[in-house]
Design goal:
Length: 83
C-alpha cells in the first residue's frame, strides 16, 4: 500500500526529479509533485511524494524531517490528504 508524504519548505528551485532522487534513497517512489501557484506557475515551496512501501515512507520521514536541503530546513510528514 502506498503512503503519501507532504514535504514542506523545499527550495523554490527544486524540481520533481530532485524530490524523487532525495526520496529514492529510502525505497521505491510511486509519484512526486511540486505544488505550484496557479497564477504564476512558480513553486510554492512544498510538494508531495508517494512512497510504494510503508516502512520506506517511515524511514524517509525519520531521516529527512528537519534535515537541510538547499539551505533550508525541510519538513516531511504523512499527508493529511487521501492516499
Amino acid at each position: 500500500m502506498t503512503t503519501r508524504l507532504h514535504v514542506g519548505n523545499i527550495p523554490t528551485t527544486a524540481t520533481d526529479d530532485d524530490l524523487e532522487a532525495m526520496f529514492r534513497q529510502f525505497g521505491l517512489v510511486d509519484n512526486v509533485g511540486i505544488l505550484k501557484n496557479q497564477a504564476t506557475g512558480l513553486s510554492n515551496g512544498s510538494g508531495f511524494v508517494v512512497m510504494c512501501n510503508e516502512m520506506d515512507a517511515e524511514s524517509a520521514i525519520s531521516r529527512l524531517n528537519f534535515s537541510q536541503y538547499g539551505g533550508r530546513t525541510i519538513s516531511v510528514s504523512r499527508s493529511r490528504l487521501g492516499q
